[in-house]
Design a protein that fits this description.
Blueprint (H helix, E strand, L loop, with lengths): L6 H34 L2 H22 L6 H40 L11 H11 L1 H14 L1 H13 L6 H22 L6 H22 L7 H31 L5 E7 L4 E11 L5 E9 L2 E5 L3 H15 L5 E6 L4 H6 L6 E6 L2 H8 L7 H11 L8 E5 L2 H11 L3 E7 L6 H4 L4 H10 E10 L7 H13 L4 E9 L3 E9 L5 H6 L13 H6 L23 H13 L4
Helix pairs in contact: 1-2, 1-5, 1-6, 1-7, 1-8, 2-5, 3-4, 3-5, 3-6, 3-8, 3-9, 6-7, 8-9, 14-16, 17-20
Length: about 575
């Protein structure tokens, strides 16, 4: 029996332990959903699904805790299991996804199959489905074991006191809620900014420490003392290895998801940056020839072999059709590539707004963040445009920064919106009537706005919705155009005029583009405004994107899921 003088000490330690474990449980939810969202590219739905599944699993775990005969032994085993799963789950998930991605290529190479006959159906499709959904499996399993913690702690407290405690569950749940809140704060402030494998290892170490505390504190109540000590030592070694080498192993597995060699991976506060390189041989000057691809959260943002096509179409129409180029606003474009082309028009001032300060740093001073070879190629690509004295960089959320520009009364001759696709709710707000209407206030009377508008082939409804949304923001003329960018396939852009003649009519009045572009000429540009028969036949049934509606986000998610065969 426990003496009464130790009751308060035990209670304090148990309640603190419960609070710490609650924080760990919430962090595991965030870790799994965050990693799955970055790998799979469905951040919002993944987070909601993961949290929902884990809550249900925690309820099932609470019921299952009744079957544990000895709460003391059960709790130590429980923390060992949670610590092991918590520190290794993401590595296992990364391995499963990587294996299912490279297996078709291995089979194709083995049987000398051409690229268009890559095996993807049957068993391979089922294995891929399992791998993609493995985060949810681990979420269910970890949630189940986390759910057993509260009932076991409650039983331990009552056994220590030797009686039923009227406020037992209230005290424990109070510690649980507070601990979860602290865990959420730790995730946002600290863990979100470090490598995900390190975050998992640090969290798992707390479960291990909780188990070790029980072994030492309640040694006389345990039946497998030496086994517990041995398991704790082994697991401590595993967690240490995961902390030191987990990110390296994870990057190697993630590298298998890309066709080319991964040469740089960096996690910023907002997203994961990945550079790959494909060697093509030797140039005439005896330097290695290669293609650089840049990915955000696993999605291709540009390829050095054809990014000039995309940026020609983004920049040339809006600047060629604008009366002046003195003051230009770019929303997004932190890689400096659109800015590079804008500077060809000799503006007096360019303002660039991008949220991810770390991404800007990589492209502004690549020599400080990338290896020498990659840094040299990036500087060659963007022509060090982000270091130009005419450029003012605002490292902030454009949705907020636009209000600050409106307060200053600044007017721009042209506006270019070069944002990633609306694959996340935070991006969706930058494609709304509200945002476009405020951009209109920043635009000069005869100015134009150009917006990257996703694929009119793969995400047709999303593309049309962007055009309708810009029209709803009271732009006098809104037109759309498209062409093939080999790395992306068919791609589209939207251009709008605040007043005056339409953008296409302005281009028709030109004899040639005012600035020579590497790919685009005036005839090709005008032809890009022509779409296939009946392309807009369903336009009336496609909604505009208003603030808070998530219309465009949902349209884009549906299109993406259809492309991935998830619907």
């Amino acid at each position: 029996m426990f003496s009464k003088k130790n009751h308060y000490l035990d209670d304090t330690l148990l309640i603190l332990t419960m609070a710490v474990l609650a924080g760990c449980g919430l962090i595991y939810e965030y870790l799994l959903s965050h990693y799955a969202g970055r790998v799979l590219g469905v951040m919002e739905s993944t987070i909601y699904t993961m949290i929902g599944l884990m809550i249900v699993s925690m309820g099932l775990g609470a019921f299952a805790a009744r079957k544990v005969r000895c709460a003391f032994n059960g709790f130590v085993y429980l923390e060992l299991i949670i610590a092991l799963l918590g520190t290794s789950a993401i590595l296992i998930i990364g391995g499963l996804i990587a294996i299912t991605q490279i297996l078709p290529h291995i089979i194709a190479d083995m049987f000398a199959l051409p690229p268009d006959m890559l095996p993807k159906g049957g068993l391979l499709k089922q294995l891929s489905f399992i791998a993609i959904n493995s985060p949810y499996f681990f979420g269910v399993v970890i949630g189940f074991f986390i759910g057993m913690e509260i009932p076991l702690i409650a039983r331990i407290r009552e056994e220590i006191h030797g009686q039923h405690l009227a406020n037992n569950l209230g005290t424990i749940y109070g510690a649980d809620y507070i601990g979860a809140g602290v865990g959420a704060a730790i995730w946002v402030v600290f863990l979100l900014s470090i490598d995900i494998s390190k975050a998992a290892a640090l969290t798992a170490s707390l479960n291990l420490i909780a188990g070790a505390f029980f072994v030492l504190r309640y040694w006389h109540k345990l039946t497998w003392r030496k086994t517990f000590l041995g398991l704790h030592l082994v697991l401590a070694l595993i967690i240490t290895l995961m902390f030191n080498y987990g990110n390296q192993w994870l990057n190697q597995m993630n590298s298998l998801l890309y066709l080319d060699k991964v040469v740089h991976v960096q996690k910023t506060h907002y997203q994961q940056l990945t550079f790959t390189e494909r060697y093509l041989g030797i140039n005439d000057d005896e330097t290695p020839a290669s293609i650089i691809n840049f990915y955000l959260n696993g999605r291709l943002q540009f390829s050095s072999i054809d990014e000039h096509i995309y940026h020609d179409y983004l920049v040339a129409p809006v600047l060629a059709g604008s009366a002046r180029h003195d003051n230009i606003l770019i929303i997004g474009g932190g890689d400096g590539l659109a800015l590079r082309d804008v500077l060809k028009y000799a503006p007096k001032k360019v303002t660039l707004i991008d949220l991810d300060s770390e991404l800007i740093d990589v492209f502004q001073t690549p020599e400080q963040h990338l290896n020498a070879n990659l840094a040299r190629k990036i500087k060659h690509l963007n022509k060090s445009s982000l270091q130009d004295q005419r450029v003012t960089i605002i490292r902030s959320d454009a949705f907020i920064s636009v209000n600050e520009l409106l307060k200053t009364g600044e007017i721009f001759d042209a506006i270019i919106v070069d944002l990633p696709d609306p694959s996340h709710p935070d991006l969706n707000k930058l494609y709304t009537v509200n945002f476009y209407a405020r951009l209109k206030q920043l635009l000069s009377g005869d100015g134009l706005i150009a917006i990257q508008s996703t694929s009119p082939y793969h995400a047709k409804d999303s593309f049309i919705s962007i055009g309708k949304t810009l029209t709803a923001a009271n732009f006098t003329h809104v037109q759309q155009y498209h062409d093939n960018v080999p790395s992306f396939g068919e791609w589209g852009w939207t251009i709008g005029a605040k007043m005056g003649t339409s953008p296409l009519a302005r281009l028709e009045n030109l004899k040639q583009l005012p600035v020579k572009h590497s790919w685009l000429n005036l005839e090709t540009l005008k032809a890009a405004f022509i779409f296939p028969n009946d392309f807009y036949s369903d336009k009336a049934n496609i909604d505009i994107n208003t603030l808070g509606s998530h219309t465009l986000y949902q349209l884009h998610q549906k299109a993406w899921q259809n492309q991935q065969g998830l619907q």
